[in-house]
Amino acid sequence: MKVFVYHTPELTPTERMPDCAIAVDVLRATSTIATALNAGAEAVQAFSDLNKLMEVSASWPADKRLRAGERGGSQVEGCDMGNSPLDCTPERVAGRRLFITTTNGTRALQRVQSAPAVLAAALINRQAVVQYLRDRQPETIWILGSGWEGSYSLEDTICAGAIVDRLLSETNTEPRDIAGNDEAIGSLALYRQWDRDLLSLMYLASHGQRLLRLQRDEDLKYCAQTDVLDVVPIQKEPGVLVKL
Ligand code: MLT
User: Fold this and answer.
1) Is cis: bond before 28, omega within 30 of 0?
2) Average pLDDT of each block of 10 consecutive residues along the chain (244 residues)?
3) Ligand 1 cavity residues, CB under 6 Å
4) E strands in 78-218
5) Which of 102, 159, 218, 223 should be mutated for ligand 1, with most atoms under 8 A from CB?
6) Ligand 1 atom with the shortest distance to the CA of 28
7) What's the whole-model pTM score?
């Protein structure tokens, strides 16, 4: 296995695809996707375009759908919810399809949707994703941060490093054996500096600060947890993720 880390969708190559692509948006899209599937959502269908989401979800029975829309951290008018994982309770999402559009995370998923295997990872489901990789041993793995409107996000790189760190210990390998690019080594170093205090890192990150200004403190606390959900969101058709 070789792991390549790309900090943003824009930095991700377009001329080829890996065997397995992992989209990461710790704050908050992939945390929300993992939580919704863990809570029994039938599937999560991701859109970068809000109008397209409205059009496709309109053909779905109203009692079997939920529309989640976020721009700039806030809920989009006309949607049932924003992008808080804490809204994804079993009472709300079980048996329903979550149609979701967010500022960056859903764009990241779209960027790699033609890869043979596409996963969504966050800190909360890191171990489950690592177990998938250890069992399937894809030859090339891309971990793709969502960033913020084209720029780098601390928390997504930390999550990439957390995945690399656990993969190394699970496979008993050294960084030189599995790191495919310098970003993989850099993300590992960053994670190892912060692994004991991930919540402080969330408070420091620019998007963490944006969410604090929107009084989303509880989201930060939730998303800073590691390995609390045993769920691997995997794409079953372009843009549609289900629980493995
Ligand atoms: C995104 O996709 O940019 C994020 O998930 C934003 C958010 O915190 O809702």
Assistant:
1) yes
2) 97 96 97 98 96 96 96 94 97 98 92 97 98 98 94 96 98 97 98 97 96 97 98 97 98
3) 25, 27-29, 70, 73, 83, 102-105, 146, 211
4) 97-101, 117-121, 140-145
5) 102
6) 5
7) 0.97
